[in-house]
Amino acid sequence: MESYKTLNPTVRTLMGPGPSDIHPRVLSAISAPTIGHLDPQFIAYMDEIQDLLRQLFSTQNKLTFPVSGTGSAGMETCMVNVLEPGDRVVIAQNGVFGGRMADIADRLGAEVVKVEVPFGQYIPIDAIQKAIDGKATKLVGIVHAETSTGVRQPIPEVATLAHEVGALLLVDCVTSLGGIPVEIDQWDVDLAYSGTQKCLSCPPGLAPVTFSQRSIDVIRNRKSKVISWYLDVNMLLNYWGGDRVYHHTAPINMLYGLREAVLLILEEGLENVYARHQKNHQALVAGLEAMGLALFVEKPYRLPQLNTVVIPDGIDDAAVRKSLLTEFNIEIGGGLGALKDKVWRVGLMGYASRPENVMLFLAALESILTRQGTSVQQGKAIEAAHVIMQS
Ligand SMILES: *Cc1c(COP(=O)(O)O)cnc(C)c1O
What we know:
The chain is of the alpha/beta class. Helices cover 42% and strands 15% of the residues. The longest helix is centred in the C-terminal third of the chain and has 22 residues, at 270-291. It binds pyridoxal-5'-phosphate. The site of pyridoxal-5'-phosphate has 14 residues, from helix 3.
């Protein structure tokens, strides 16, 4: 047999659209001894994880648990449990992930009405109202934090519109949870899902979800069986809730990691976590603007955890990102879909949202752009970021 070298991935600074940097306490929790998924000790951890997730989502929803799968599995879990063929569904799309929601609804045989605005814009409430059109609708789906564009979408008004026609509101919180406020109960959101590798700073592999009583009533009144065996919450509930009946083997060590990650956030305090994301975002923006670069999204709709930066004319996107990775060990994201080659996506998510990362990135980018012959303002970015950090 060939001899393979011992696994030894380089330590990178993960400042892309996810995965984000993992806190050392999370990595250490993952390496704790594996125990059985029906071990009383593990069952106690499961109860704790559900309780921690309720605090993170700001909800009392009993049906709150992590799906074994990535964020997209969370999306599919929410949709497959409430949708039946022929249901009318309104999906708001201003980026890649709204498109994914629409695709899943279509595969489930729903009648999909899309509200589309160009990538990078927020979706106006009257456009959503027009698409709902006063008609009986089963579900309204929207992305809270569009990671493909860096746009933040206001949620509470959408909830009111959905409920007026008896629809459930589904919110994608993959990138928002742990980065900006997510208020499931206060906003009256019926179904929400997230992922572990964005602002929770845990490796990818789990999708926290939460279901309101209204959505559970819809599931109870289904005419047809949920078409997915793995994602059917009726059965998952017997494992995560009451009877602890075996359904599938829970990813034990990943769940240790999630427990530690949420604990870290709650120890710091949700308000402090949001304030940290906001401050580091402001410092990054100040630095980029001092250098002469522009942000892609209008100020009121910018996400602090995902910054889209307009790539200046004449700059080779791939070459810049390659230099960041190979010279500085920094990963950032490129543009997706319509934004390919047009923007960089700079994540300041969870544990990666730290002042030293902002400074490292600004210094690295200035150095690379200068060498590429761009006329960026030199020596101004770090100072501008520093001023914000001291304020
Ligand atoms: C990353 C992401 C997803 C998909 O999550 P995966 O973990 O990649 O499956 C869905 N929605 C948004 C907004 C995301 O950022």
